[in-house]
What does this fold into?
Amino acid sequence: MASEPELADLARPKAPARSAQLAEYIALIHPADVEPPSAHYSWDEEQRRLLAAATEIASSLAADNAWRKRLDRWRRWAAAATALYEKESLGQAPARMLAQLAELAPKRAVEVLDYLIETSSPLKGRRGSGHVAATSDRNLG
Amino acid sequence: MWRLLATETLDEPTLTRWLAHDEQTRALAATPLAEIDSEMATRLFRQLAGDESELVRRAALNGLRYGSATAEWKIRLGLEIARDLGDIDALETVLLVAENANFALAPDLIAIARDAFLTTAHAERLRDYQLVSALQKIDPDQHDLLFDWIWARLEWLAEESKLAWTIDTLPDTLCVLIREVGTTDDLSDALRRFSDSELDTLADEALVDLLQWLDPGADALTRLHGRQLRRPATPPPRRAAVAAET
It folds into this structure.
């Protein structure tokens, strides 16, 4: 016997599947929450999910020979998103991803940071998020 | 960046090139550099702690705040940054870092901390908790530094416009402390300043608070009230001059 659908599932129609690029944009750049608050997992679990998403993006960036193109695309997304949402800086996701990249592929991380700095990309972080980047990569292990 | 520095993946030429780029990049590097013990990191951190950009100096201070290792030279740098910023929160942070590391401040560091504390007398907005906490850490007797700060603030307030409603006078948190450590000499000093005043500046509002906190039942204060009541109702000279002009 099929279980009864939960009330929340009835109220919210299923969203179409996300493309890889959209998922990357949401995980890395989008300045607001997309998913509704969930009672299904804790704050710790949420942090684990964010870290897993950052690790996945870092891992694919480390393996990507066209990584400069990808950083350029992220920069265009960041410019559009911060203008649209009138935000001065991005959230912690880019810093989290760079910290994971430094762990997975340190040499590529130096190349990436070098490129972000030389191109004045907002992904390298600003003072607020920079502080997080500077300390969180130590705390992330 | 901390990981890249700690694992020495990041070489000095690359880092030096980054530091020459812009203040945001220098600020990004300043915080993790505080945590690295190598000769290169120490040298670059000292350089960034004295950077012309406040953003970078604050980032260096963050490195001291969140770093797990401290040393006398780091505390000294932190106190100097706090003094130059005139920021009570920054000062209290550095003192807290020293206290947490069981680091007793040598007399020369106490002198820098006192200077840093006194520079906050010129801040428009005050942070009560940090003010009292820093005072307790710098001057265990809490009297001399407190009253040096109060007189410095009164002199600064006397020069500020009374219309500047964003300026704090004396924080209420000081009430208990002033009642506890204030002396009759302090009361006399406050009364003399009050008598000399034209009663039309922010400093006078602060003086009224101070007199009440020191000893509201003091004979000298009662006599002053009596004199004020008997005085003819003439405006103070500055107000009279303004009235004559208009």
Observations:
- The longest helix of chain A spans residues 43-63.
- Helices of chain A lie at 7-11, 20-28, 43-63, 67-84, 93-104, 106-118, 127-139.
